[in-house]
């Protein structure tokens, strides 16, 4: 599901970038460690901030980034042009990742899966493209936030089959992951690191 104008503006500003760099990255890294020299994928890469974080703060050697929105891929290409061969970007869906089986050491989700109506399909795809022992790092938004009357007025999210921490944990296990760590903030946001078994 593409972002509406309000959410696109919320995702493309210095405040969002600061939260991603100063809080989300540190939280996920403390839970799952670095991925030195790894080949990684970011689903829903937006304008490329997450790709930079995976390279610079997690130690990846190469990052592929996909996003449904061609405009966001254009922005990411401009932002990441100096990274050269370290980065590959394309328009794509997290429920049908254009990559072979078991090709990534780690996959990153900085708040994308909650935008996907068939979000369990995305978890299965992430599992498919990860190598055995590969890690999935996810920061996600829970139903409590999505279904709040204020946010329902300004943001567009799928409203059916939304998840909380326990539901997301069970879905990870059902998709073939072993949960390594999870945490939440205010019951509205969750952080997960899982390993492909």
Helices and strands, in order, run as HHEHEHEEHEHHHEE
- Secondary-structure class: alpha/beta
CATH topology: Rossmann fold
Give the low-confidence spans.
Answer: none
In the CATH hierarchy, what is the superfamily?
A: Vaccinia Virus protein VP39
Number of helices: 8
Describe this structure in words.
Helix content is 39%, strand content 26%. The chain has a seven-stranded mixed sheet with strand order 3-2-1-4-5-7-6, with helices on both faces. The longest helix has 19 residues. The protein has one domain: Vaccinia Virus protein VP39 (Rossmann fold), CATH 3.40.50. It has eight helices and seven strands; from the N terminus they run ααβαβαββαβαααββ. The chain is globular, with a radius of gyration of 15 Å. The protein has 197 residues and is α/β, with parallel strands linked by helices. α4 links the parallel β2 and β3. The protein starts with a helix and ends with a strand.
Secondary structure topology:
Layout: H1 5-11, H2 14-32, E1 39-43, H3 49-56, E2 62-67, H4 70-80, E3 87-91, E4 104-110, H5 119-129, E5 130-141, H6 143-146, H7 149-154, H8 165-174, E6 177-185, E7 189-196
Parallel strand pairs: 1-2, 1-4, 2-3, 4-5
Antiparallel strand pairs: 5-7, 6-7
Keywords, separated by commas or semicolons:
197 residues; seven-stranded mixed beta sheet; single chain; 39% helix; 26% strand
């Amino acid at each position: 599901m593409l972002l509406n104008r309000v959410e696109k503006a919320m995702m493309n500003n210095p405040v969002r970038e600061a939260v991603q760099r100063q809080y989300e990255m540190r939280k996920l890294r403390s839970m799952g460690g670095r991925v030195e020299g790894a080949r990684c994928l970011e689903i829903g890469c937006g304008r490329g901030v997450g790709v930079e974080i995976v390279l610079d703060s997690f130690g990846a050697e190469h990052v592929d980034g996909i996003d449904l929105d061609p405009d966001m891929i254009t922005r990411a290409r401009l932002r990441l042009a100096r990274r050269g061969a370290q980065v590959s970007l394309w328009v794509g869906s997290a429920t049908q990742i254009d990559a072979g089986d078991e090709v990534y050491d780690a996959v990153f989700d900085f708040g994308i899966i909650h935008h996907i109506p068939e979000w369990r399909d995305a978890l299965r795809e992430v599992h498919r493209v990860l190598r055995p022992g590969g890690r999935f790092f996810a920061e996600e938004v829970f139903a409590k936030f999505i279904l709040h009357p204020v946010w329902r007025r300004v943001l567009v999210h799928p409203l059916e089959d939304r998840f909380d921490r326990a539901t997301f944990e069970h879905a990870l296990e059902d998709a073939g992951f072993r949960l390594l760590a999870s945490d939440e903030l205010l019951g509205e946001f969750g952080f997960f690191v899982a390993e492909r078994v």
